[in-house]
Write a structure and sequence with these properties.
five-stranded mixed β-sheet; mainly beta
Length: 143
Amino acid sequence: MRRSSLVLVAVAAVGGLLTGCGADDDSADTDVVITTSVTTPQSAAGPMTIDQSANGSTVELIVGQRLVVRLPQDPAATEQWGMVNEAEGVLIADGGPESEGNTTEWPFRAIEQGVATLEFVYAPAGEPPVEPDPTFVVDVRVS
């Protein structure tokens, strides 16, 4: 409430100053246009969900924005997607991976500007990959 009052006072002051400016000739018409802009807080950006179609790409986030990586999962298979690297500093895990039906989701939150790489591999559960298994890699640029 206080901020909007200050904005109104500033607009009135600028309008008052502009009223006295210009030519003294009564025939000169002067239109004054005052434009104000409102910026959206960075944390107000909606979450971004990506899937396998984003493999090998770069996604853009802003600080405070949430990223959800959604990968397919066959509940009957012995293989599953697992995260290979923890992206520290730029992103943080925003909860653990959650499996539902035929997908698993990993939520992250952008906490500072920079670039992070997220890498996942599809391998037997609980075992390190021994062969080049399918991978999912995406770069995340936070501004």
